[in-house]
Amino acid sequence: LCALPAGTRALVFWPINMASGLFITLEGVEGSGKTTQAAILGDALRKNGRPVTVTHEPGGTRAGETIRAIFLDPAVSLDVASELLLVLADRAQHVREKLRPALAAGEIVISDRYSDSTTAYQGYGRGFDLKLLGELNRLATDNVTPDLTIVLDLQVETGLERTRARAKGTGRGSDRFEGERAEFHRKVRDGFLAIAKAEPSRVVVIDADRPVAAVTADIRRAVDEMLARR
Predict the structure, then answer these.
(1) How far apart are CA 194 and CA 119, in angstroms?
(2) Is residue 30 a contact partner of residue 114, using CB atoms and an 8 Å limit?
(3) What is the value of pTM for the model shown?
(4) Is 12 inside a domain boundary?
(5) What sections of 8-155 are H helices per DSSP?
(6) How many whole angstroms separate alpha carbon 33 and alpha carbon 82?
(7) Is residue 163 situated within a structural domain?
(8) End-to-end alpha-carbon separation of the chain, Å?
(9) Is residue 176 predicted with pLDDT exceeding 90?
(10) How many other β-carbons are positioned within 10 Å of the β-carbon of residue 78?
């Protein structure tokens, strides 16, 4: 270390958790209603005068949308490691291009999926080493961690029924993960619940097998409690 000249002010670089913005993530199995609830929450917060960015993974940036197309396409064969590295590349770009700038500007950022999905899907679902996956996730996130994570939980069979009905309505087929066997999705659900159990101060589990309005009310309650603490 060297001494600064008299009268010179030192620059202080705050860690991400000192930023003025807030980061909320929505997680859960297929068909749990994350996208719907992220949009509802974003609209409600904006009506209260708060600056909000609603985003998603994979995707959320121009590069991310290109990655997303490959990542979710069941016609493209991917090794487990290739699948993992694609989603981590998407996250690294998402963090640096969209999340950090929005948080630094004091916005509330709401993301439909983030690093917990990678732990649940590629870790618990695919069986990738959790310790190594954690280290890779830390690299991709650049230490940007959620202030609040909401896991929308429901039975796998119910979620898959919802995704099939949704796909039928749009005329598209199932993506890479929607088309997986129920046993895979049970492992993913177990992964989300394990994360919630390990980090109860960050993760709130909400029963998603109810009407949208009831789920929305519980999400708002969890967000309001988090905002009151801040």
Answers:
(1) 10
(2) no
(3) 0.87
(4) no
(5) 34-47, 62-72, 80-94, 100-104, 115-118, 130-141
(6) 27
(7) yes
(8) 35
(9) no
(10) 15
Residue 115, domain CATH: 3.40.50.300
What span, in angstroms and rounded, lies between the C-alpha atoms of 65 and 192?
A: 25
Q: Return the amino acid letter for 158.
A: T
Q: Which amino acid is at 118?
A: T
Cα 108 to Cα 60, 82, 102, 226: the distances in Å are 15, 32, 8, 12
By CB atoms closer than 10 A (0-12, 13-18, 19+), residue 226 is: middle
Number of structural domains, the chain? Answer: 1
Long-range contacts (CB closer than 8 Å, 24 or more residues apart) made by 93-98: 93/61, 93/63, 93/64, 93/67, 94/55, 94/57, 94/60, 94/61, 94/64, 95/140, 95/141, 95/142, 95/144, 96/142, 97/61, 97/63, 98/53, 98/55, 98/60, 98/61
Summarised one tens digit per residue, pLDDT across range 85-129 is: 999 999 999 999 999 999 999 999 999 999 999 999 999 999 999
The domain containing residue 126 runs over which residues? 22-229
Q: Is 87 inside a domain boundary? A: yes
pLDDT value of position 179 = 76
